[in-house]
Amino acid sequence: MAKRRWEDIAIGLVVPVVAIAVWQWVASMGWVNEHVLPSPLQVWRKWVAYLLPLQDFQAWHEASGGGRLAWMVSGELITDAIGSLYRVIVGFLVGAALALPVGLAMGASRVAHAWLNPLFQLLRPIPPIAYIPMSMLWFGLGNPPAFFLIALGAFFPVLMNTIAGVRQVDGIYLRAARNLGASGPTMFLRVILPAAVPYILTGMRIGIGTAFIVVIVAEMIAVNNGLGFRISEAREYFWSDKIIAGMITIGLLGLAIDVGMNKLNNYLLRWHRGLEH
Amino acid sequence: MTAPDAQAHLVIDDVSKVFDGDGRKMVALQHISLEIPHGQFVCLLGPSGCGKSTLLNAVAGFAPPTSGRVLADGVPVAGPGPERGMVFQEYALFPWMTVEQNVGFGLEIKGMPRAQIAARVADLLQLLSLEDFAKRYPKDLSGGMRQRVAIARVLALDSPILLMDEPFGALDALTRRNLQDELLRLWAELRKTVIFVTHSIEEAIYLADRIVVMTYRPGTIKRDILVELPRLRDPAAPEFNALKRELGLMVMEEQQRHHDAEIKAAAVD
Fold first, then answer.
1. Taking all residues of chain A, what is their mean pLDDT, rounded to a whole number?
2. Quick one: pLDDT at residue B92?
């Protein structure tokens, strides 16, 4: 198995390595302006500089009084990544925490669905990004409008999937539970909710993906730090190497979020058929 | 079997069930009356569409009859409940619960203290040779093991009446015989009243004290037979086979009506 794994990794690396080599070759031939397409080597150097602390330890320590560990993570990239991640997490949690109970109620009760569904169907097609102007009027600049937009982006996918999840619960489980004497809250919490969890988690994955898109756009417009802000700022100075370095960081952070969600998914759905773990 | 019996555990009194689909009425059950004494093992036998599962669902309280009533211990059945434990063909185990959580769920609902539940669940798992599977999820079990868990789950409630809806229908022949023997052993030990739905003639003869053969639409009782062969029954014995032949003719007559009706329905469409 271990040998197989290394083989897979080696095979997986071939295409990216070739792509980067071609990119480096094109850039080094001088066919294109380096502001239009910087070489991978240049992007890498910029990425490292972006990652490392801006000042040396002595100067930094005198200015801020922080320790060595704090200094190591004082680079711009890390500060930006933490800022973006923080916004995604807070916004997502707010959106999901609102969507979950509403979705459970709408899935379980026809009355709740009849009352709320028309409004949500009207609001759902409006992309969260279209709320940016109003969110800045309502919440100003900085984190508050970003939280609002991200929560909005996460809300609908979680809502729709929670409704679908509750509705698709197999009648056989309900019959078996009723036969065992379950009713009311027990039925809801121990049978309907767990049976809906696969759908709810799918909604959360889509929701956090949307949240991640929204955070970048929100930072480009309404916030003055974070990864989205940084690449938008770099564009004003034509620092295309820094733009690409920022894009790569965004990609890595997105990948990390996806891997994290996947792990959570596999843990929560360890009982589910057809999952490898 | 028609004289009122004060000792009857379960009384099905003139039960009819009519389904109303797209304006067409379908009579699933027509004037069914049965009295089942304590501890009797009854098989409802018939082809698909004869209403045997509908009758079982009426007894379970999932779908009340259109007319007539079902009495358990003299009390009319108003809905599903743990005094009439049901085993489903699809097992219906909760996939998000481990084996022991599934078996203990009914006791948890009853409000039994945790320590007591654990002890009772351990006993039941042992009774059904499931000790080694306590922490497993249903997806990791074979069909036979799942059905054992489902049986343990209803036994946990100590229901006096066991309702079984083609419980072994999805299992291979060997696992099926194995579980039939297990069920007979448990029944001999616990003396429950059992209603067991099947379309297997051999299964009915192997298990039942009494076989109720049902007709294809409308569902009525075609024959009500007491099986007096000594237990444990030998499916190769001549008496077993004589009964099998007799029942086979009856069931195939209904199967033929089912078949003809299907062809007629297809021709109408």
1. 92
2. 94
pLDDT of amino acid B6: 54
- Measure in Å the smallest separation between the Cα of B245 and chain A Cα atoms: 35
Q: Residue B266 corresponds to which tokens in the numbers above?
A: 């297809």
Indicate the residue of B62, B82, B139 with minimum beta-carbon distance to A180: B82
Judged against a pLDDT cut of 50, whether residue A276 lies above it is answered with: no
Range of the domain at A137: 75-268
Closest CA to A192 of A214, A206, A174: A174
Judgement on whether residues A124 and A254 belong to the same structural domain of the protein: yes
Provide the CA B251 distance to its chain's centre, in angstroms: 18
Please tell me the predicted confidence (pLDDT) of residue B152. Answer: 96
Domain presence at residue A142 = yes
**Cβ–Cβ gap B80/A175 under 8 Å:** yes
Q: Does A185 touch chain B (CB under 8 A)?
A: no
- Cα separation, A30 vs B254, in Å, equals 87
The pLDDT tens digits of the residues spanning A242-273 come to 999 999 999 999 999 999 999 999 999 999 97
Q: CATH code at A263?
A: 1.10.3720.10
Cα pseudo-dihedral B165, B169, B174, B177, rounded to 10: 30
In a domain, A233, yes or no: yes
Shortest Cα distance, chain B CAs vs residue A81, angstroms: 36
H or E element that contains B203: helix B201-207
Q: Are residues A160 and A63 in the same domain?
A: no
Higher pLDDT, B257 or B2: B257
Strand partners, B35: B11
Q: Do A272 and B139 touch (CB under 8 A)?
A: yes
Q: What is the pTM of this model?
A: 0.85
The CA distances from residue B135 to A273, B31, B119, B157, in Å, are 16, 47, 15, 20
Q: For residues A62 and A119, state if they share a domain.
A: no
Mean pLDDT of B120-125: 96
Contact B95 A180 (CB under 8 A): no
Tokens of B55: 């009758």
**Does residue A11 share a domain with residue A63?**
no
CA–CA min distance B196, chain A (Å): 16
Tell me which chain A residues have a C-beta less than 8 angstroms from the C-beta of B97. Answer: 271
CA–CA distance, A153 with A149 (Å, rounded to integer): 6
The H or E element spanning position B9 is strand B8-21
Give the nearest chain A residue to B94 (CA atoms). A173
pLDDT computed for residue B3 by the predictor: 45
Lowest mean pLDDT among A56-70, A177-191, B1-15, B78-92: B1-15
